[in-house]
Amino acid sequence: MTRNDTLPSVTPGYGLNMSTFTAAPTQPPTISYEVATRSLLQSHFSKETAKPLILGTQELHTLGKIATHEFGLFTAIVGDDSRRIVVGRSLAEVQGLAETVAYPFGRGERARKMAWLEAMGEHYEYLSNKPGGRLQGSYIIKCDELQFRHDYHHGEMQMLYIFERDDVTCANIELGELDGVMLLSTNTSALDALEHSYDLDDPNVTFRKCDPETCIAPQPKWSPCSGRRFLFRLRGREIASGETVSEPECGDIEFLDDEFTKFVGRINVPFVGEEVEFRGFKVSDTPPDQPCEWEFYSFEEPVNSRRCEHGVEGEFGSEAEIDDWASDSTTSS
User: Fold this and answer.
1) Is the pTM value of this prediction over 0.90?
2) Is residue 297 domain-shared with residue 197, that is, in the same domain?
3) Which of 138, 125, 142 is nearest to 310 (CA)?
4) Structural domain of residue 239, as residue ranges?
C-alpha cells in the first residue's frame, strides 16, 4: 500500500518484514493516526509468534496507550530517544530490543556513557573552582574512532596526563585502543632536540636532558605564554594486538582557551590508517601517575619492561636481575 504520513514509521530489520505493510488493510488518505496505528498493530500482532516492532512516532503517548490498553502489548522507549518506541508481546523481548538498539555494544555502552557524564561533571566542577592556567593536569578524552570497545562494561575513560618537568613537557595517554607516552613542545626544532636528548642507558632516569657540554642540539624551552598549539611525538602500543608504535608518530594539540581547560588534538594512527581527531577536557591540575618512560615503547624494550602505573614501577623477577641490569648499564655508560 502507499505509505500514509499518519502511520508510525517502522525501523526495517527489527521484527518487521516490509510485506506487513502490503498485507495490512489499505486505509483512505484521510485516515486518522489512531485508526492507522490500530490497523498496523492488528496486522502485525495477529500472529502469536510476531516479533517486537520499533516504531518512530511524534505521538508517543497515543501510540503507547493504544498498544497497552487496547492490544495488551508491552512498550519501551529506545534509550533517551522519545521519538522511538518498542512494541511487543513479551516484556523481556521488548526491553531487550530497546536496550540493544539504544546501546549496540550492550550494557557496557550505557556504563561508558554514564562514566562520560560523570567525568564531564568533574570537568565543570573543575571550571567552577577557577582553573590556575597550567598545562599540567588530567584530561578526559573523547575519541570515537579509538574507543576500546572490549572494555565498555568497565565504564573506563580515555585519559591524558600531562606533566611539566623543568623544560620537559611530557604525557601519558590512554587513547582507547592506543596506549602510549608523548613529548610536547610548541616548537618543532625544540621537540626534535628533546626527542633525541634522552639518555637511554640509565634505567633509573625517566626523563633526562643530555649534557649541555656534549650535546650540540639546542635545548628545548617552553613557557605557558608561548602559545596554545603544542606539537607532540608519540610512542605507544595497540592494546588489542600488542603491536608497538616505536617510530614516533607526530600530532598536535590545540587548546581552546588560555586556561588550558579543553583542547582538540589530531594524530595519524598507523593501525587506523588515517588522521584521528580527539578532544580533551581538564578535570584536575594534578595527574595521578608518574611519567612513563619514553624508551618503554621501543623495539628493544628494557629487561622486564617497566611501565609507571599510579606512581609505582613494575617489579623485576628477582634482586639478581636488578643487580645484573644495573651492572650492564654501568658498563655500557
Assistant:
1) no
2) yes
3) 138
4) 131-332
